[in-house]
Write a structure and sequence with these properties.
It contains no helices and 27 strands. By secondary structure, the chain is mainly β. The strands form 7 sheets. The chain has a 4-stranded antiparallel β-sheet with strand order 1-2-3-4, with no helix packed on it. Strands 5-6-7-8 form a 4-stranded antiparallel β-sheet, with no helix packed on it. Strands 9-10-11-12 form a 4-stranded antiparallel β-sheet, with no helix packed on it.
Length: about 290
């Protein structure tokens, strides 16, 4: 494992490009770094005056990078090898803390510390959001579209919600006492939703809408998670600096102590072969699973 250094403050989010060749990281220094995964080196540092970067998402074609900051939602577009800002929105009334593209790249969802989820028409680059959903769960930490793009899940400061693209009322709504849900991800078969909720890893059946506890640990054991798009591999980060990998949701998994501080974010490449983690020690760590 090679630790990549560049950020001057804690790192909040990681995301791979769809082809898995580039890893993007954003953090409390207000910068986005792009890393060459194969060669384990920096490609570019992007800075435009943001104070903090909380969330990142690549479009399916890898040409657009959505960035959530303390002040706005920003869209960057790759042109001639460099990334240029093409659109900015300040509709959210607080930090933009989570982002997700649909699989066809037509829509972008953004979640905020103002407790709302907004949907954006990326294809037409409309400056106003198409829809705003009052999630009612506090700060929205994580977003993901269902495999058919017809529903969106949110993990937030006080629970989990699932909405269809057409409705404002949730079809799944779980308030969780003393649980900050920092990550949600649909299982590869699209039949369930996995959520990292601090002490527990929850599995929500999308047919019965019931939540079951899959694993339990100490405080901060399940701070963040990532799932391979193919297969059943699950990656979680912890408050104690450890990263755990499960090839199945059973057993203890494999534990790696890559970090000296809290792991704020983890990511898996689309093929599930390469993982990355980052957090309060300012380091970005890509490694072969």
């Amino acid at each position: 494992m090679v630790a990549l250094h560049g950020h001057g403050e804690p790192v909040n989010h990681l995301v791979f490009t769809p082809d898995g060749r580039v890893l993007a990281s954003g953090g409390d220094d207000g910068c986005v770094w792009l890393w060459d995964v194969a060669n384990r080196c920096a490609l570019a540092r992007i800075s435009w005056g943001a104070k903090w970067v909380f969330a990142l998402a690549f479009s399916p074609d890898g040409k657009t990078l959505a960035v959530g900051t303390d002040a706005s939602l920003l869209l960057l577009r790759e042109e001639a090898g460099s990334w240029k800002p093409v659109q900015q929105s300040r509709e959210h009334q607080n930090w933009v803390t989570s982002l997700a593209f649909t699989r066809d790249g037509q829509l972008l969802a953004s979640g905020s510390a103002d407790g709302t989820v907004r949907l954006w028409d990326v294809a037409e680059r409309r400056k106003r959001s198409l829809k705003s959903i009052a999630a009612g769960l506090g700060t929205v930490r994580s977003l993901e579209f269902a495999h058919n793009d017809l529903a969106i899940a949110a993990g937030a400061a006080s629970g989990i919600g699932l909405w269809t693209a057409e409705d404002y009322e949730p079809i799944v709504f779980h308030r969780l006492p003393d649980a900050d849900v920092r990550s949600v991800a649909f299982t590869p078969d699209g039949q369930a939703l996995l959520a990292a909720a601090g002490r527990t890893l929850l599995l929500i059946d999308l047919h019965t809408h019931e939540a079951a506890e899959v694993m339990r640990g100490g405080p901060g054991t399940f701070r963040c998670l990532a799932l391979a798009r193919q297969g059943t591999r699950v990656l979680t980060g912890r408050d104690d600096g450890a990263v755990q990998v499960w090839d199945q949701l059973d057993g203890a998994g494999r534990t790696f102590q890559w970090h000296t501080g809290t792991v704020n974010c983890v990511a898996l490449s689309p093929d599930g072969v390469t993982a990355a983690s980052a957090g309060d020690d300012y380091c970005v760590c890509p490694w072969d699973v």
